[in-house]
């Protein structure tokens, strides 16, 4: 099967790129031919190594019309030359472009959607109606898609989740309770300020490791400094492969206001690390089993966040068993998720051919 994955411009530094790379490599191992088409390219290129891809268009012009044509016409030529059996669009506008291209070429090639963000953050979501089917990374986003495209029999929405490598080294438990945060340092979505406020309420001996960078780094760093906590905290900055530098952790903490399907929770649990997360839309409730592999608190509940962290400090011996934590995310293994995605694509292709 020849598969085209088409996306708008990427930073190259996020979880979405990691998912693209993982899925493409696994499909390749299954003898499928997969190519990534990036409209606007990628700022960081490292994630594109060893995967078939092409960067399309020019972001340098300030003229929106010229910029659009610099994407769409070259994409048309590239897709026509590649002749994919199926196209997966990762943004609503891309889905619309690709569907119209197939109509112009008079081809029955199915076009699916595969969005990776909460729909309220995505531009022109109504264009998802052009897709023949939808791959959804969480149940919550599947419901959002259903609200956009309707619930008719032709609007096929499949929950596929994101894959994680479950065959990784376990991260040891530390002697001093240590809380881990990995992600962007910003407050609109990630609410990192809530983490700092919760840490300030803790008593006893503890440490925190903060991995990441972002627009609110200085604000949250200064907040921690104002509480006199930075001697307990390690600010590691952004790391391309953070897990290779995390020797020990008691729990990973996620304080987000919203998510698509937080890969960092899966990555932590695959290493035996329980996770304390806000019960935000969307994803954490599909991953975290309260009191078994982690804990859920309401978004913005700093008191609840601090109370759970204090319990970890007071009773580290009661942390969930690392092996159970690891096993709890095995259903999200690369093989399981990619086999599911591949099966959906294959069925849709056969339906299109027979119609």
Automatic annotation (TrEMBL):
GO MF terms, alphabetically ordered: glycosyltransferase activity
Residue intervals of the Glycosyl transferase family domain: 174-318
CDD domains linked to this entry: GT4_GT28_WabH-like
Pfam families the UniProt entry points to: Glyco_transf_4, Glycos_transf_1
EC number(s) given by UniProt: 2.4.1.-
Gene3D superfamilies in the cross-refs: Glycogen Phosphorylase B
Glycosyltransferase subfamily 4-like N-terminal domain sequence ranges: 14-167
First-level EC class: transferase
Keywords: Glycosyltransferase, Transferase
Family annotation (SUPFAM superfamilies): UDP-Glycosyltransferase/glycogen phosphorylase
Designated name of the protein: Lipopolysaccharide 1,6-galactosyltransferase
Protein's organism: Paenibacillus auburnensis
């Amino acid at each position: 099967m020849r598969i085209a994955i088409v996306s708008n411009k990427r930073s190259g530094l996020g979880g979405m790129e990691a998912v693209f790379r993982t899925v493409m490599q696994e499909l390749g191992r299954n003898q499928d031919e997969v190519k990534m088409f990036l409209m606007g390219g990628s700022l960081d290129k490292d994630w594109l190594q060893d995967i078939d891809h092409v960067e399309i268009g020019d972001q340098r012009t300030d003229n929106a019309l010229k910029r659009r044509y610099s994407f769409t016409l070259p994409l048309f030529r590239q897709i026509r030359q590649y002749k994919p059996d199926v196209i997966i669009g990762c943004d609503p506008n891309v889905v619309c472009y690709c569907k119209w291209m197939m109509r112009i070429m008079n081809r029955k090639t199915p076009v699916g959607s595969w969005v990776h963000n909460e729909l309220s953050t995505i531009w022109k979501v109504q264009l998802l109606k052009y897709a023949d089917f939808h791959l959804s990374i969480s149940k919550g986003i599947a419901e959002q898609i259903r609200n956009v495209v309707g619930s008719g029999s032709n609007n096929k929405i499949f929950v596929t989740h994101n894959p994680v490598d479950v065959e990784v080294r376990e991260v040891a438990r530390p002697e001093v309770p240590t809380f881990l945060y990995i992600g962007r340092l910003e407050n609109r979505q990630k609410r990192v300020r809530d983490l700092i406020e919760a840490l300030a309420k803790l008593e006893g001996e503890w440490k925190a490791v903060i991995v990441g960078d972002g627009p609110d780094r200085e604000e949250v760093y200064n907040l921690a400094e104002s509480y006199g906590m930075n001697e307990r905290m390690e600010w590691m900055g952004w790391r391309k492969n953070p897990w290779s530098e995390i020797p020990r952790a008691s729990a990973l903490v996620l304080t987000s206001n919203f998510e698509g399907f937080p890969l960092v929770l899966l990555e932590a649990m695959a290493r035996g690390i329980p996770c304390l997360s806000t019960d935000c839309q969307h994803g954490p409730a599909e991953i975290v089993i309260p009191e078994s592999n982690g804990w859920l608190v309401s978004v913005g509940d700093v008191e609840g966040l601090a109370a759970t962290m204090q319990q970890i400090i007071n009773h580290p011996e009661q942390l969930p068993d690392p092996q159970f934590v690891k096993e709890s995310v095995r259903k999200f293994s690369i093989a399981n998720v990619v086999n599911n995605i591949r099966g959906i694509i294959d069925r849709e292709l056969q339906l299109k051919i027979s119609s």
